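User: Run a structure prediction on this.
Assistant: Running it now.
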Amino acid sequence: MKIYDVTDPGFSVYGRIIEGYDFSPVTGLMKKRPVPGPVEYVASDPGLEALPVFTQFESRFYGQMGAELGYCMGHNDRLNGLEYHRGSEVNIAVTDYVVLVGRQQDIEPDMRYDTRKVEAFYVTAGMAVEFYATTLHYCACHVQEEGYAHATFLPRGTNTPLDSGFTAQTKEDRLLQAKNKWLIAHPEAGLGPEVPALLYGPNWTMADLER
């Protein structure tokens, strides 16, 4: 599979580059944190949310709705799953990374998805990238031995534990793994029996990709 640059016109169906904000305090703080071996995700980080740009972005980009600013970092070299949210995700790249994306519109009626429809895009450190609500995505792939890191804006409460007593009523409900997080796993991912393994086709790895 070819890796396109995130500035390629083909990315426009998945998202866009965000400009007009100074995210250097965010990347500066993140660079002080060591990248772990496995992937580490934090939905809401008090240190990042104390930065003035958090309030500015929450008010302007999210239209005065509540947002959260956390991070994702670590080492990953394959697809493993695809998730989506009700609302845009914005990632601020601390390092270069590759993201594998698809379209929610291509999920089949039985909630299966053909991974041969996935595309790969290269994100350069310093970029702020919006992923639309209908864009399927999951953990980024590292392109450096040191791993990858990005800060992550999402609507407030996303990826936090579900309220007790939630019972799935529809096919889509079965995908809900956390608040505002619908996730489909690849059978090879080993994400656990609670995550429906409805991806079929290649579990793409960095070895399958080329720029």
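The chain has one domain: 3-208.
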